[in-house]
Write a structure and sequence with these properties.
CATH topology of the largest domain: OB fold (Dihydrolipoamide Acetyltransferase, E2P)
CATH class of the largest domain: Mainly Beta
Strand order of the largest sheet: 3-2-1-4-5
Radius of gyration: 18 Å
Distance between the termini: 45 Å
CATH superfamily of the largest domain: Nucleic acid-binding proteins
Oligomer: single chain
Largest sheet: 5 strands, antiparallel
Number of strands: 5
Length: 206
């Protein structure tokens, strides 16, 4: 079982929720929650050394191992408590953890279902399940100090998407830019490359 990895970072430009860590010539794909990804992108670049505490997940229903990485061992502990909630698997938990662990833990201890419902994929029923399962178990994480993070360099995700459309998917630059502009006109609230890829795809289906 893998619980910790230290290697050279390779940021996956096509996905916002994972990185590849090169350890002794082997590339490990590791899922990263969005709050953690912001910290990584704000302080690291391709080729930099990175250490991750890894939650290793494999079951009969999910035979392919899923690795989820955190820079803090406490964040990893919280994640493993979070996926103990019924109907919340590792992939769903990665998407849901949009805010720092400290904030989510406080919402659970305060029985603040409204704030939990703001997390991706968490509706009213799941919010209540999270509180019922974890209330009283996550106070330690609610007391974590707020860590000041180096401000993230504002990343032009549109340029990332354009690069992938051209270099990997065979589009010409003018065509790629047009697809991106049309997608943003349809959905001005897009805030990541993953969301932009989805909107470009939806536009192509019409």
């Amino acid at each position: 079982m893998i619980s910790y990895l230290k290697g050279n970072l390779k940021i996956n430009r096509a996905f916002d929720d994972r990185v590849t860590l090169i350890v002794n010539g082997i590339g490990y794909e590791v899922l990263i929650p969005s709050y953690e990804m912001k910290k990584i992108k704000g302080s690291s670049a391709d080729g930099d050394e990175l250490e991750l505490h890894v939650s290793y997940n494999q079951t009969e229903r999910q035979p392919k191992p899923v690795l989820v990485g955190f820079q803090s061992a406490l964040d990893k502990e919280f994640f493993e408590l979070f996926i103990s909630v019924e109907d919340i698997g590792p992939a769903a938990a990665v998407k849901a953890l949009m805010k720092p662990v400290r904030e989510i833990a406080r919402s659970i201890e305060d029985k603040d279902a409204r704030t939990l419902r703001q997390l991706k994929g968490i509706g009213e029923r799941k919010a209540e399940k999270i509180i019922a399962t974890l209330k009283g178990k996550v106070a330690k994480y609610a007391l974590m100090r707020e860590v000041e993070v180096t401000p993230e360099v504002v990343e032009d995700f549109r340029k990332e998407v354009e690069d992938v459309l051209v270099t990997q998917l065979g589009h010409k630059h003018p065509e790629a830019r047009m697809l991106i502009e049309e997608a943003i006109k349809r959905n001005p609230g897009i805030s990541s490359s993953g969301e932009l890829f989805e909107e470009v795809y939806r536009g192509q289906k019409k």
